[in-house]
């Protein structure tokens, strides 16, 4: 790990460049070690606090996002979260989010993952960062697949809504009746000049 103590940040919201948020202990308190595509930061807040704050930043609550996951795919335990679906910001926890050792991982940035041993998974991110995470590969794969399903369902709903919106607005083009109205106005003007 690079020395990131000089990269201390008070405020942090998840961005499309965030790879993962890991807990790290300083002075007996849990902080967050944030990995981005090209940088790393330390925040004095716990990973779950960063996730909650990020949901709020994008106009919803963590509880609302959890409920959305339950409604869409029926998952309530270790639920993946769509922080901002339009920017592909889908994250999943490696364990119960209430546990201090929970790591939040971005679906979008995972390149590959492999079994390291019975309780660890080696994750290669698209920026070539490799991290050993304390989660069995079967559990990691399960969390990964749940998040893929959540993303697919949500994107499908968004696209369906966009299609309905497009259809609604494309069918409200000027109709023949309004075209006749403009002809009538022209005719009326022509007649009034006589």
TrEMBL record:
InterPro entries, alphabetized: ComK
Domain of life, source organism: Bacteria
GO biological process terms, semicolon-separated: establishment of competence for transformation
Pfam families in alphabetical order: ComK
UniProt protein name: Transcriptional regulator
Species lineage: Bacteria, Bacillati, Bacillota, Bacilli, Bacillales
